[in-house]
Each structure stands twice: as C-alpha cells, then as structure tokens.
TrEMBL record, chains A, B:
Membrane-spanning parts: none
Record organism: Thalassobacter stenotrophicus DSM 16310
Name listed for the protein in its UniProt record: Ornithine cyclodeaminase
Classification via InterPro entries: NAD(P)-bd_dom_sf (IPR036291), ODC_Mu_crystall (IPR003462), ODC_N (IPR023401)
Pfam families referenced in this protein's UniProt entry, alphabetically: OCD_Mu_crystall (PF02423)
C-alpha cells in the first residue's frame, strides 16, 4: 500500500524487529555481543558527568509497572519503554518486554527504533558481568544463580565471557525453571549442578547472582548464607516493594550502585536508612574510588538497571547497523516538502 | 526475511505509519475527525481525577527539546515522544515531530504504535476548538491567526467545525507562510484576508489564536491590541523561555489552563507570580467552575498541550483501527513459547 504515498528518506526510521535482533545476536555471537556491549557501558560509566540523568518515570498498578527511561549525552538521546508484570507469565505473556529509541539531540529526530526485550536481557547481563569483573574476589570459579527465569542464562554467558566463571549452581522456587536453565546452560558448555534450596545452591560459590521476579519484599538470601569475601549481584529487586536480600546482609556488605536517587527507591537499599553509605559505580570505573579492597570483604552490586546502560546498548546496536543491515525502514515521521505545509502534504495525499 | 522467524500474534504491535494516518484522516474527513477527537478529549477532561498526571519529562538543548508525555487512566497507558526544534525548518526538518504508544495497564504490552506528527496537529487543534467553543464570546464570527506555520490550518478547520467561524485574518512574520496558509484555507472555503502586522490582523476579530514557533520570549501580542470580550488561544508558548503575550494581557485576562504544574513552567503564565489565580479547564468541563461569565471578559487559553490530550487521541485512533485497518503488524515484542525461556527462543532461531 505504500507506493502511492511514498515518503522521503527523512521520514524513515530504521526499525530493528525481534527477528532482526536475533539475527544480529547470532551474527556477532551472544557472548561476544555482551562483551562488546560491556565495553560501551564501561566507557559511558567513565564519562558519567556528561549525561542528563533522571530516575525513571514509573506508572505503577496492581499488576505491575510501566516505565520510561530517558537519558542524553548532549549529542544523542535515548529512551526505553519497559514493563514489569510478574503475573504475566501465568497468562502466557513475558514478565518484561521493552523497546527503545535513539535520537539526535540537534534535530530531535529518531534515528532508530528497536525491540529491547532481548537487548535489555543482554545489557543487564553485560552490566552484571562488568561489575563482577570489577568486584569479584580473586580466583572466583563458581557462581550460584538464584532465580532461573528469562534473565538467568544471559547472566551466566556474560559473566563467563568477562570473568571466566564456568561452574554454576542453580536454584529456583520452581524446579521447571531450574531444569530449563540447566539444559540451556549445559548446551553452552557450562558445568551445572541443580539444587533444591538457596542454602544448598550458594555453598562453595564465590559469586551469587539473584534474578527473581516477585513484586514483593522477599528474602531470597539470608545472612547466614553469605560467607566473607563473596560478591553478590542482586538483579531482581528493582522497584519499590521488591527486594531479594535480608537487610542484615546489606549491613555486612559494601554496596555499589548505579544512580543513588533511583536505587534508594527501587533497590535493596530501600530497606536501609536513606543516608546509608553506598559507592557509585562510575567513581570506581573512573578510578576515583576503590572497588574491592580486602579479600574478606562482601561486595554487593545493588542493580536496578539505569537509563545510561540502555543508552549504551542503543548506541552499540545503532553502530552495528552500518555493517549489519538488520533493520526495516519505518514511515514514522511526517516529512512535507515545505516543512510549514503539513496541511498541504495531507491534502495532496487525499 | 520474516518467514523463517515468524513471531506469534502476541509479538505483533499494530503500527500506524504516516501514510496510514493520512488514509485514516481522509476516510473520516479532517474536520469530522477533529470534532470526534474533541468529544473524546472532552470526555477525558470530565474524568480528570482518574488520570495519573505528571508534567512532561523534557530534555532541553541549545537547539530544542525532546519530551516524553506519559499518562494512564488505570486501564490504558499512553505516552508521546515529541521534539520541538525551531531551527529545524531552515534545515528541511519539521519543527515538531512525534510518535506515540498505547498500552494495556494489566499486561504492560503495547497495543498500538503510531505516528503522531499529524495526530498532534489534530489533537492540538481539536483541544483549541473545544476550549474556544467553551469560552468564546457569543456571536463570534472572525478569528485572527497569528503564526501561519504547520499548525495554522488545523486550528482553523477544527474551530470552524466546532464554533462555525469562517472568517480568518492571517499574519506571520514571514509572508511566505501567510500566503501558503491563505491558499490552503481558501481551498477549504474560508473567507481569508492577509495582513502585514499583528495589529492589523486582530482588528475586528473576536478570537485570536497565536501559534508561532520561536523558542524565546517574544511579544506577538501587546496589551493595546486586545479589546474587551475577546477570547485568546495562546498555542505557541509551550516551553520554558517561550512565550507569545505581553504580561499586561495576562493581568487583564481570566486564564484557563490544562494542568497547572506544567503550565506554570511552560505556558504564558511563567511570566506571572506562581500564585496567580488560574482556572483548570477540567473544572469547567465537569461543571464545577464557570467558564465565561461576562461579555466584556477577556478569556485566555494558555495552551501548552497535556499528556491526557495525547491519550485521548491515541485511544480514538486505536478504536478506529477496528473498522479501518490502516496499520501494519510490527514484530516489536519477543514472545517465547515458554515465557521464561527467552534464551531458548534465541538459540532456536540460530
């Protein structure tokens, strides 16, 4: 139907569908792509002061949350739309779906629309891997993965890529999820054991990654499960009322966060005094503050996911489109010959 | 390329392109469509307390602004992405482009993605017409249109549809814009005169609509130009530092606004004390406060455009798609067979 109303080049926005995102991931390789994205995320953390930052704008309902996450570095602007609906799974929908847009600041024109359900899984795992490389104890060889849903395998693959961790101990409240993850991860060459309790799963692990999805205060990890020297990635607690760790763990840990104004509201530290000391990750990446300083230190990445990570992911994908043409042109912007003559454009199409 | 990776029904989001939006407008008729949208906008103003409201989230730069405008009525969620870049025109780009998404609150899934450059022009004009019908003096027959850019003709057509105004007096700082608008509006059967000064244009008009685009404090209208009993729609002043009216006019007018927390920052009233009394339009639509009370009263609609108006426009278009199939299915959402097996979906596509 488009031939009679063919828009100009300016009106087209490259669109990366889910099918095309999968093609891109397979062309580059999932592990390589997350490693490459981690480099971009790290580079953007290092130039943190250049970004316009704001806590995400959340619309909460009984069933879940819909969020907009914008940011800009002054040259490009990006935002992500993402939902989180724990009850979706039982209805055959994804808990988390997302899409995003990258734009030019100078014209305000979008330059890419992309699916971000897969891309969010990649960037979340890439960020965890980056922080794990920064903070995990020396010689770490085993990771416990608590919560074996949609995010689990991405975490494992990214952390292996950056941290050489090949031994995994899995636990989920639903053993079907654990079996699914075990099968997928063994197919990727991991050494995997499955466990029937979180206590059992964390035994002998130096790294614990929690990525559960309940929208309620939960206590996936209790204090007695956490030995000295561990590194914890707490991925799942990412909105008000949603946490995974007992507060005693937080008091024993040195806590690293992305953006305190958002993490204080959404992260594990919503359980703590608003003045409780935390370290901003960008200070560590930029060499302005230390990461791990002692072998017996417990380090905690209180991950909630921040807009700059999505921005890094968007600009990474946008750069890939130059060599991998995995996109369709989308007629999303009106483009009249005379920019003031929108009415005339409409009438001439009639 | 889509055949080998065919997504399920759940993964598709209906997309209304610019070409399809033009088809929809021509099928319904632009005047009729704006009148229908005005009814939806009015209905949503009447149930104002049901909406989650927040001032739009703006990213300002030297060249312009990029904004996200979300809102929800608890059942549906909508947001618009819109830019405003006055310098775009000289570069062959639109000053304002926009797109938007409507979603279900219960699942968080988008149900429509649509162009909103044209739709914003329609909803802005529909809102002006609705407010003009509410506040204009009895027997008004002539409107001055100051600023003859992309929004001008839409304003005229919508206001004629709702208020039976057929006589127009045009002025723009650039007479090419005035000539373009005069030609377009005469083709629509309006009685049009063109003028070389705003003073001249407003003479004999009972309604003045300003829709200029400069991003700076401007004084399009001065106090001596405004006679008693007039109604003014100030459309163009819609971000910090961008105004169109001399403050003396504001002091003589009764001022009607959409959402005070946004209008105080972006509207004409940014020039006034933050406590200056204004009337919220929804109170008037809901019958809780009076509109025009005297023949000699100057009424001013300090329009900035609010998210609920975009929400009304989105749900209007979405409803039309049931009978007018002017959309393409977009593979925007990942939809694995097992919702927890995103990795497995990715691997099977490989």
């Amino acid at each position: 139907m488009k031939d009679t109303l063919q828009p100009s080049e300016l009106a087209y926005v490259p669109f990366v569908s889910v099918a095309n995102m999968m093609r891109l991931i397979h062309t580059i390789g999932p592990g390589q792509m997350m490693a490459d994205m981690a480099s971009v995320i790290e580079a953007d953390f290092k130039r943190w002061p250049e970004f316009d930052k704001t806590p995400r704008i959340a619309a909460h309902s009984e069933e879940g949350v819909i969020e907009l996450m914008p940011t800009s570095d002054g040259a490009q602007y990006g935002f992500k739309y993402v939902n989180g609906h724990p009850a979706n799974m039982a209805r055959g929908f994804q808990t988390v779906t997302a899409f995003g847009v990258l734009s030019r600041v100078d014209t305000g024109y979008p330059v890419m629309l992309t699916e971000m359900t897969l891309l969010t899984a990649l960037r979340t795992a890439a960020t965890s891997a980056l922080v794990t490389r920064l903070l995990a104890p020396k010689g770490a060889h085993t990771m416990a993965l608590i919560g074996n849903g949609a995010q689990c395998e991405f975490q494992a693959v990214a952390i292996r890529e950056l941290c050489k961790i090949n031994t995994l101990r899995l636990y989920d409240i639903d053993d079907k999820a654990t079996n699914k993850a075990a099968k997928n991860l063994r197919a990727q060459g991991f050494d995997v054991t499955t466990h029937t309790s979180p206590e059992d799963a964390v035994t002998g692990a130096q790294i614990i990654t929690t990525c559960t999805a309940d929208k309620q205060f939960a206590t996936i990890l209790t204090d007695n499960m956490i030995g000295s020297g561990m590194h914890i990635n707490a991925i799942g607690g990412d909105c008000p009322g949603k946490t995974e760790l007992h507060p005693d763990i937080l008091h024993r840990s040195d806590i690293f966060v992305e953006y305190p104004p958002q993490t204080r509201v959404e992260g594990e530290i919503q359980q703590l005094d608003p003045e409780h000391p935390v370290t901003e990750l960008w200070h560590v990446f930029a060499g302005q503050k230390p990461g791990r300083t002692r072998e017996d230190q417990i380090t905690l990445f209180d991950s909630v996911g921040f807009a700059t990570e999505d921005f890094s992911a968007l600009r990474y994908v946008h750069a890939q489109l130059e060599t991998h043409p995995f996109f369709d042109p989308l007629d999303m912007l009106a483009d009249p010959d005379d920019t003031r003559d929108l009415w005339g454009m409409l009438m001439r199409a009639g």
